[in-house]
Amino acid sequence: MKIRRYIVLVCLLFAVHVSGQDVALYEQFNGRYDFTFVGNTLNKTYNGIGVPCEINTSSSALLSLPAGNTIQKAYLYWAGSGEGDFSVTLNGQNVAASRQFPRMVTGLNSNNEPVQRPFFVHLQMLLKLFRQAVMGSIH
Question: Is the pLDDT of residue 19 over 60?
């Protein structure tokens, strides 16, 4: 009995110290649906300490869906460090973010002093563009 009380107390203490972001439902789909993710990066190398921060100017990925599929929704998410690019080019068309999620994260500089670092995530719905390019390349 004492062990159970101890476990409950420890769990409550950990629950108090856990932090995170608020999550809210953006859109709900009812029925028989499937989903596919496709993505790529602008990074030339893996992230890490001591790795130079070099990026490519473009990136591409191939989206292949079986014949007869119907796209219900298509979203483009892009993210990175810094203040962010509020518009990008996808298949030759400019895409502006309809939703933006900026975030400041406290990190340490090379002298172990706290420093604020900006990050961003942007979102845009692209259903029409994806329906046009369903059998092609998204880049």
Answer: no
